[in-house]
User: Which sequence fits this backbone?
């Protein structure tokens, strides 16, 4: 903050998604352009965390007007500065176009993707500079911890969290207030608060975005938790694959220490709290709380049987409390606005909001925060903008490799902890992988099992051996070698692994198989009994060349143009032929054919 | 950090720094920044406006607009108070800026001798 007042703030997204789509280059070009036009003293560039709309990155928001520009490039900066900053004219071509209506929308808040969300946890993400503690403070940051430390007893804090109805956002959904109570009730000279940021599910990036976009919120939540249960030390366990998140969190910790918001005698209350980061090496199992603590202690990250629970004997043998990033991020809001404000959002059994990471075959890939109880259809179609290329929705995998898939019939299912369990899935940490009609569900099950199998730590036999055997059967089926009895064997193994594994990884590993078996059993059967992959994904089960139906072919030659190996021949206006010898089954011809005359033999 | 008051003091200062990201209802000052405006010295006017706002610690949205056709009267400065007509001042000099802000923006009195147009709300 070199100067006290700027006429314009340009917020450039600096989340990992936008970094990979080129926001750094955009920012450099913008800086050069502002310098060129001698505007550096009038315009401030603010690098923010993730805006959530990763699909449209790099993203820029111009204030004071609040104009939202997306998919900007370094080459756009000259025009943008000249027109928007200098002459005050909106650059129409860089505005967002709503896919449903083709309208260009200048203002952030009017875009469907944002207007249908309810941002509590993400309220600052994309709006403040995460590397400036002052910006967090300007958004009422550290107010909650100040009030808690100066006006409330620890038990009152726990009661407030209980009343709010907050449940663990890492997946299990255990009531957070109750968890804090267990740790608070233990009598010990030392206790620990741990933040689990070992986000490892394929397709999940909620915790990373929060740490990158609003790290102080998590720090504030952890200080409050520490005070509530009498812990004076905290760890944030972040995977080393999140370098930007680690960097921003470390800066945030340093700044909080500088301002005396971490350290000794906070708010003159006599309460001390220090916080440090532990970088994880990226083993999925370290998201399991006992394995995570072992890893912090410097041991190999493997789970151990419970009891004793972490609240009794946790990190370094001391009572400890572990919550997920998003759980902590809810705490400052609850303490500032009160339990009643919080529990007015959501459903009977699931209060507040949930952040979901939308990925897969969906138009608006990104982060969405919605109130609990919203339907899957609203998330996928209203916020997510529907399925890519206008294809049909087939299924959505919710809860990552531990969760299950939901289908067409679940589109109107309200999303909350209990109804998801009932439907055979789980909230999980919030990954939503959307799949279209061209997805093979057996292959999806194989993918997730391949993941859990390779991430199994090997300590207990059911998980180590069982997932391996299940994976072998799935590989057999997808390669066309499936036989009678495979499905029954999968089901038997699944039940055994679920009921006898040591930790959550094994107990939930069979879920993707079980839920695809429940909803897409016919696909398994087609693979095994008909040697056919209905979605055309499993290579061994589809023909090794394409054919053109001569009655349908209109001889437009579109396929000839796209064939990379030039094996399609025929006169214009007449039926074409593919040379099966040379065909490499890339499918480019079938995709481009305007009359769907081409299919796999 | 020793008290809530200390935090509040810090917050008040920090909020001032990011107040222009609040897109809610507030006083707007719009400077004509078409080629004609810039040629007539609108950049200096704009900088003067920012200086004055900073000095008086006001929460005002400052934006620009393109040429509105009154090139003759540039530099043009519009003041738009919520719920009132948009008033356009013409041939504004850097010395006029403080008068416009103190009379109109702070006290609500339009500086009549500089007005070139009024747009009804």
Assistant:
């Amino acid at each position: 903050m070199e100067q006290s007042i700027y006429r314009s703030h340009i917020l450039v997204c600096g989340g990992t998604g936008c970094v990979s789509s080129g926001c750094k280059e955009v920012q450099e070009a913008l800086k050069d352009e502002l310098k060129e036009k001698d505007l550096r003293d009038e315009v401030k560039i603010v690098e923010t965390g993730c805006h959530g709309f990763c699909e449209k990155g790099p993203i820029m928001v111009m204030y004071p007007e609040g104009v939202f520009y997306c998919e900007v490039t370094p080459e756009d900066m000259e025009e943008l500065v000249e027109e928007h900053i200098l002459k005050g004219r909106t650059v129409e071509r860089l505005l967002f176009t709503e896919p449903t209506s083709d309208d260009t929308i200048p203002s952030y808040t009017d875009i469907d993707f944002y207007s249908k969300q309810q941002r509590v946890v993400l309220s600052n993400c994309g709006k403040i500079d995460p590397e400036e503690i002052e910006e967090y403070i300007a958004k009422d940051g550290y107010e909650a911890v100040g009030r808690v430390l100066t006006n409330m007893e620890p038990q009152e804090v726990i009661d407030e969290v209980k009343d709010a109805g907050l449940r663990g956002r890492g997946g299990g959904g255990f009531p957070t207030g109750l968890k804090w109570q267990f740790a608070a009730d233990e009598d010990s000279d030392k206790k620990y608060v741990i933040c689990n940021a070992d986000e490892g599910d394929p397709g999940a990036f909620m915790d990373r975005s929060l740490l990158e976009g609003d790290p102080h919120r998590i720090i504030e939540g952890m200080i409050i938790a520490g005070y509530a249960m009498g812990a004076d030390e905290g760890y944030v366990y972040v995977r080393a694959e999140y370098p930007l998140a680690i960097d921003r969190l470390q800066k945030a910790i340093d700044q909080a220490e500088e301002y005396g918001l971490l350290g000794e005698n906070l708010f003159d209350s006599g309460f001390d709290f220090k916080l440090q980061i532990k970088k994880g090496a990226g083993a999925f199992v370290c998201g399991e709380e006992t394995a995570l603590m072992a890893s912090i202690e410097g041991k190999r990250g493997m789970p151990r049987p419970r009891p004793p629970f972490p609240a009794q004997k946790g990190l370094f043998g001391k009572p400890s409390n572990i919550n997920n990033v998003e759980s902590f991020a809810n705490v400052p809001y609850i303490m500032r606005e009160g339990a009643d404000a919080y529990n007015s959002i959501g459903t009977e059994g699931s209060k507040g909001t949930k952040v979901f990471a939308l990925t897969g075959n969906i138009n608006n890939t990104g982060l969405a925060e919605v109130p609990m109880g919203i339907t899957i259809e609203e998330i996928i179609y209203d916020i997510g903008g529907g399925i890519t290329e206008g294809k049909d929705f087939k299924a959505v995998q919710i809860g990552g490799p531990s969760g299950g898939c939901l289908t067409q019939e679940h589109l109107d299912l309200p999303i909350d902890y209990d109804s998801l369990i009932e439907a055979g899935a789980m909230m999980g940490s919030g990954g939503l992988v959307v799949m279209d009609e061209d997805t093979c569900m057996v292959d999806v099950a194989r993918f997730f099992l391949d993941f859990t199998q390779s991430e199994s730590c090997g300590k207990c036999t059911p998980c180590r051996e069982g997932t391996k055997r299940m994976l072998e059967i799935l590989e057999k089926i997808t390669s066309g070698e499936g036989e009678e009895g495979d499905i029954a064997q999968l089901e038997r193994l699944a039940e055994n692994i679920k009921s006898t594994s040591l930790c959550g990884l094994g107990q939930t590993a069979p879920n993707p198989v079980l839920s695809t078996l429940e909803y897409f059993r016919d696909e398994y059967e087609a693979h095994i009994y008909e040697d056919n992959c209905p979605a055309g994904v499993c290579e061994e089960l589809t023909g090794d060349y394409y054919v053109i139906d001569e009655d349908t072919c209109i001889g437009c030659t579109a396929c000839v143009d796209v064939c990379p190996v030039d094996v399609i021949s025929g006169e214009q206006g007449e039926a074409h032929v593919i040379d099966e010898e040379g065909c490499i089954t890339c499918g480019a011809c079938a995709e481009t054919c305007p009359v769907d005359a081409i299919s796999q033999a | 950090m020793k008290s809530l008051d200390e935090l509040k003091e810090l917050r008040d200062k920090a909020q001032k720094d990011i107040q222009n990201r609040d897109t809610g209802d507030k006083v707007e000052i719009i400077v004509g920044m078409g080629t004609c405006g810039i040629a007539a010295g609108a950049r200096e006017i704009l900088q003067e406006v920012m200086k004055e706002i900073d000095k008086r610690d006001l929460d005002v949205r400052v934006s620009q607009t393109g040429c509105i056709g009154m090139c003759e009267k540039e530099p043009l400065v519009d003041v738009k108070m919520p719920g009132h007509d948009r008033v356009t001042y013409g041939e504004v000099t850097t010395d006029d800026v403080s008068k416009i802000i103190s009379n109109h923006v702070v006290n609500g009195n339009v500086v009549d001798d500089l007005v070139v147009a009024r747009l009804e709300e």
